[in-house]
Specification:
This protein has three helices and four strands; from the N terminus they run E-H-E-E-H-H-E. With 99 residues, the chain is an alpha+beta fold.
């Protein structure tokens, strides 16, 4: 099986004050489930050097169908309760590799 992703998803979260560790933990839990999902080539939770308050979730998928199947199984995306632990709605971008 090839591991060339057909879709890369990057979601940026802005934790509410004092909730960063909780957002990191929630992302790590989702990352584990994503990594085990059919069509996922890997998932990571990252911090951003230039924006230390941000938490970023990155996942690599075989195709859009694989990502959408995972999101449906999770009950939608992102699974983090926005009003509870974030100051803003998450920003999600999807990238299609060109080579």
């Amino acid at each position: 099986m090839t591991e060339h992703a057909g879709l890369i998803q990057v979601t940026t979260f802005r934790p509410a004050p004092g909730r960063r560790d909780e957002v990191l933990a929630l992302c790590a839990q989702t990352q584990e489930r994503a990594a085990a999902a059919d069509g996922c080539f890997g998932a990571q939770t990252c911090t951003v050097d230039e924006d230390p308050d941000a938490v970023v979730a990155i996942s690599r998928w075989r195709d859009r169908h694989s990502l959408e199947a995972f999101q449906a199984a999770e009950g939608g995306s992102p699974p983090i309760p926005v009003r509870d632990v974030l100051i803003d709605a998450p920003v999600t971008r999807q990238y299609a590799p060109v080579g």
